[in-house]
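Dissemination and training. As part of the outreach component of the grant, students in the summer workshop were shown how a complex can be specified as a set of sequence lines and then modelled as a single object. The example used during the hands-on session is reproduced here so that future cohorts can follow it. Participants entered these lines:
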Amino acid sequence: MSRIPEVLKEQVDRIAEAIIYLYTESRRLTKDQAAKVGLTGPQLTVVKILDELGDLSLSELSDRIRAQNSTVTGIVDRMEREGLVDRKRSAEDRRVVHIQLTDKGQKLARGLNFEPFSIFRHAIQQALEPQELLQLLGLLDKLAKWVRTEVEGESTGERTKKRASNDDD
Amino acid sequence: MSRIPEVLKEQVDRIAEAIIYLYTESRRLTKDQAAKVGLTGPQLTVVKILDELGDLSLSELSDRIRAQNSTVTGIVDRMEREGLVDRKRSAEDRRVVHIQLTDKGQKLARGLNFEPFSIFRHAIQQALEPQELLQLLGLLDKLAKWVRTEVEGESTGERTKKRASNDDD
DNA sequence: GAAGAAAACTTCGCACACGAAACATCGCCG
DNA sequence: CGGCGATGTTTCGTGTGCGAAGTTTTCTTC
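and obtained this result:
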């Protein structure tokens, strides 16, 4: 069961710390950048995704940004209020709502020269050698895969419904 | 400027994705676990930290959990309401508020057999060989260090005041 | 030792973020 | 056709999470 000597416990903690640090700091900086063009962090992400992929249903959007539908409803509400996106009922399935960028939203998206979490991406590129980069990717993939199977297998029959169809993201 | 061939752009994105995935999924699971004992995610973290380190001022607590004072004020408010912690004005410096676990809070903390982000820690231990673990730590430290200097150097004189005193965490 | 800067908290307003419940629509099965 | 479970979205209540402004206390500096 325990492949890892007790001595490495501290290292495990430091890895966790580092990931938490990288994530929170990146989010904070993304938010700052977004604020300069009048957006919030999540709104910036939505604008970029819609510009890249075209219209999406609210559920598809939720999957993309790893949030619940109820969360995204709120984000879209505020973006609609600002005239950045429109809601369009689907003709084929009238339960579905398609979210689309307005002209204003699209213009905004294309005028941006940064991505969400860009500090993060910069760090990866600037701080690491190509070979290290690939190493890191391999290790993180291994971790992510382990978590994925654990999460989907573990739950006692409940709570597994969502987030089961992530193949390529 | 760009040490990285264009080909690796996709790998960079995948690294970012992986970290975001690991963080958000861990947080979600931590929250689920905490809910079983009537706590929220951040509350679980606070309880564990206070049990481990003893009383802390609100600012020290903020640093530990990487949140702003105004956020922690709210968390402590609700925990105080639930009788998990007490606020004590410091005698030496009457601006300072010490947060301490109540008996109830301490009993709760010690009854828990899991840590915040424990899925995460498990993944690190179970999915990786000791040697990979050290490799990963090295790479993440490198990234974190780069971000740290970038963040503290970059800003045009503003917004750097906070978060300058992290040496060992 | 008093004016003013600085530090520690709190308050306020806003934007996520989630789960549970409500609602509308679709699909199927008889 | 008509029920009826499943699916897509919204609503609601609660809990973060942040920055700006406000309050109290301490520190500085003259």
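Strands of chain A lie at 56-57, 85-89, 97-101. Students were then asked to discuss how this feature might be tested experimentally.
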